[in-house]
Specification:
heterodimer; A: mainly alpha; 66% helix; B: 275 residues; alpha/beta; Rossmann fold; 2 domains; 4-stranded antiparallel sheet; 11 helices; 21% strand
């Protein structure tokens, strides 16, 4: 894409987002979007950012992290705190207020940047020691981190402690939420399809071979972790400053982390398209099932869980496997190839010649048998 | 014990390189010992591999050949001793760092990047020669596109050499066994090594494939100006292409010499046939 084309595309996206934002806030003619739907739309955007960013570390680099809500909390509280303490002054510098216009935009950008940096810093602090661990051990450390963050926030009176940060100023809107979601998709896609994406994929596939071809696995794991954390921090900043969505430590418990993981698993781990679709589906689904609660309170979550279980039985590789949506679906030449996106893992397994299974050393069989 | 290379003189250390120009071997292993707890896997090993050599490392099963490779590539850290490549110390460095310094290997049990394509496997090995920053990739700078194109072109060239270009978009693990072995060598070459370590390259190959492999190894040595050390059980391959062969048994070097010398060496025959 030529630079001029890039600028044009970006401008078009901004105009479209601004128009959509205006339409949702002020209505078009007689039509006014139901605030309930508007809220679901906002949550979809935030969840897309969360899922796509988690996909970088869990999907592409193959490191199982379940502390994403922790980074979201760090970013959310930092961003909200920045807006509360300095937002009005930042808006004032541009001669505006937090109510809207360039003043609010400046406050939004500053607060989200602050949230991203704080979350990235948390990513470095957690990532450097814990990414030497693998699999289950890494999962437990990240889980622990998420809980520590929650408990720490619970004990900071300046941001409301257990009652939640009720002072937070709602300056988030559809424009910012979807701008961030689009930027996240572009950033993660560009990383995935670059030499850095290949480096991360080698770590997922075989760390020993990755080191043997000169890839510093620890460094790239930390890098993926930090980028992923920063993006989660931005998502946190958006959700923490969303109208009628008060910041509370309870919103960032490990259930939230699991929710994001379920989104990328349903969509297909490693697929950006999958993460977007998974995030959208899992935001809408619990709302769409509300009717069940009227028949029997609590039935909704039972149905929701059963649907997830059923889905995993019939499509364990997720909706998209590792494939990506692109113009090549319609026969267009595929120029931007995502390195990992070719076949479902399930398909790949089918092609892999089966080696005889060596049962020595597994539970049951043993080398002490004579 | 047949000693062809003399023990390094005690002045060793910093004075060793550059005494006589060109005399320093590309790979020099001095008194390397590796112990795992009470088990000594490699003991007082000396190796001296001249630049451009095709050097074979053989020995009975469990002799410690793969351990030697793991020491050379930094997977293990020697308990004692020095490893130098082109005069630079390698012992104690991380595997990725050693790969950057120009030492790459293949694995006895093939280790390809299973969920990547054939082309991506080779392109991934170009990463260590990449000069771009993460930002270059994120915003898609000129440098990013140029490097990406170069990596792709170079990877394709290598695939052509190894007759794998027709399968560039296949899943690496869907290739037949012999092709997977060739792909692993192609991937190793993509890092632009000075020293290539091949761990049983002919394992599982039929006689025709091993003969082709021998030609290929000889050819890549010339083409890429490589020094090659190979571990191999197939004696036809080792004796057919190596100029120097070193035999190790129970982690100790028992003989070094030309294939003819090794074949007639009583210690070697004893190690292979004796109890």
């Amino acid at each position: 894409m030529s630079p001029a084309r890039k600028v044009l595309n970006s401008a078009a996206v901004l105009v479209l987002l601004a128009a959509a934002n205006y339409a949702i806030e002020h209505g078009v003619g007689d039509f006014q979007l139901n605030p309930y739907y508007a809220r679901i739309l906002n949550l979809i955007g935030i969840n897309i950012t969360l899922a796509v960013s988690l996909n970088l570390i869990n999907g592409l680099a193959g490191q199982f992290s379940i502390g994403h809500a922790g980074f979201m909390a760090v970013g959310g509280y930092t961003a909200a705190y920045i807006t509360v303490s300095a937002g009005a002054r930042i808006a004032g510098l541009l001669g505006g207020t937090l109510a809207g216009g360039p003043g609010a935009a400046a406050a939004m950008i500053v607060s989200l940047t602050g949230g991203a940096l704080a979350a990235a810093l948390a990513g470095v602090v957690v990532g450097i020691p814990s990414l030497r661990l693998k699999g289950d051990y890494l999962a437990i450390v990240t889980l622990g981190f998420g809980e520590i963050i929650r408990v720490v926030i619970l004990n900071i009176p300046a941001v409301g402690g257990a009652t939640g940060y009720t002072d937070a100023i709602p300056i988030t809107n559809v424009f910012w939420i979807f701008l961030v979601a689009i930027l996240t998709i572009v950033i993660v896609r560009n990383i995935a399809s670059s030499t850095f994406g290949r480096a991360l994929a080698t770590i997922r596939d075989d760390e020993i071979a990755a080191e043997a071809v000169g890839i510093n696995t620890t460094r790239y794991k930390v890098l993926a972790f930090v980028v992923s954390a920063a993006l989660a921090g931005v998502a946190g900043g958006l959700s923490g400053q969303l109208f009628a969505n008060p910041l509370s430590p309870q919103n960032f418990n490990f259930v939230k982390s699991i929710e994001i993981i379920v989104m990328i698993v349903i969509g297909g781990i490693g697929s950006i398209t999958g993460a977007v679709v998974g995030a959208t589906a899992l935001t809408i689904l619990p709302e769409a099932l509300r009717g069940f609660d009227q028949q029997f309170p609590g039935l909704r979550m039972v149905v929701y869980s059963l649907l997830l279980i059923g889905f995993m039985i019939f499509r364990p590789q997720g909706l998209f496997g590792r494939r990506e949506f692109g113009l090549h679906w319609f026969g267009w030449p595929n120029r931007t190839k995502i390195p990992v996106a070719l076949t479902d893992t399930a398909d790949a397994r089918a092609h892999t010649p089966q080696r005889p299974v060596d049962r020595r050393g597994t539970l049951g069989g043993s080398d002490t048998d004579d | 014990m047949t000693e062809v290379t003399g023990r390094p003189d005690s002045s060793g250390g910093r004075g060793a390189e550059g005494n006589v120009p060109g005399a320093e071997p590309l790979l020099r292993v001095q008194d390397v010992t590796k112990r795992f707890g009470g088990l000594t896997a490699v003991k007082d090993l000396d190796m001296s591999v001249p630049k451009g050599a095709l050097y074979g490392l053989i020995g009975p099963n469990g002799a410690g050949k793969t351990t030697v490779f793991n020491l050379l590539t930094g997977v293990y850290r020697p308990t004692e001793g020095l490893i130098r490549v082109d005069g630079a110390r390698m012992d104690g460095r991380q595997p990725y760092d050693i790969a950057r310094a120009g030492v790459t290997r293949t694995f006895q049990n093939i280790r390809l990047f299973a969920d990547m394509t054939v082309l991506e496997n080779v392109m991934a090995a170009r990463h260590l020669r990449s000069r771009q920053w993460l930002v270059d990739a994120v915003i898609g700078t000129k440098r990013h596109h140029k490097e990406e194109q170069q990596a792709r072109d170079r990877a394709f060239e290598l695939l052509k050499i190894f007759r794998l270009d027709g399968m560039a978009d296949e899943h690496a693990t869907s290739l037949p066994y012999g092709s997977q072995r060739r792909l692993e060598i192609a991937r190793a070459l993509a890092t632009e090594p000075k020293l290539l370590l091949l761990d049983e390259p002919a394992a599982g190959m039929n006689p025709q494939e091993s003969a082709d492999l021998m030609d290929l190894i000889r050819w890549i040595r010339e083409e890429f100006r490589l020094t090659i050390v190979l571990v191999e059980h197939n004696m036809k391959v080792v004796m057919g292409i190596c100029e120097t062969v070193q035999v190790i048994d129970h982690g100790e070097a028992i003989a070094v010499g030309t294939p003819a010398e090794i074949q007639g060496n009583p210690d070697v025959i004893e190690a292979y046939l004796g109890g």
